[in-house]
Amino acid sequence: MRAFSTPLLAALLAAAVTPAFAAAAPAHKAAAARPATTATGVTGDVRCLMTMIAVGQDKTRTQAAQVGVYFFYGRINERAPGFDLASAMKAEAPKLDGPALQAELKRCGPMVATASQGLQSAVAALRPPGAVAAPPAAAPAPVAPAPAPTPK
Hints:
Elements: H1 6-15, H2 29-33, H3 41-55, H4 62-79, H5 85-92, H6 98-125
């Protein structure tokens, strides 16, 4: 059994070059004709978690993928406390080739997007009516050095 490693993640990512969480066309016609394997429950969440890790290797999609990693890690912990995640990831890694990764991204991405939109809506509901979201906080001003003590 192969270990889940960074080179494997890079290979998975290279096989799935799509915009963050967007549905992409299959890599080739054979992948389109093959029925998608739909993993359910904790195994499905493990596959989604691994997909998000692979997507996060692309520096332009790191933040979106991190949201997905936290989302699916939380789902796994909620569904199966004490679950042996490392063993499950090692078992699923060989199955996540390019077409499988593409299919998982199509399946998992919308779940993360829906959850993110729900959270954003809940936060927006906390604002008073007519309030506008606060602009991002500016970086703090650099601290000026303290003046040198004057000799007496």
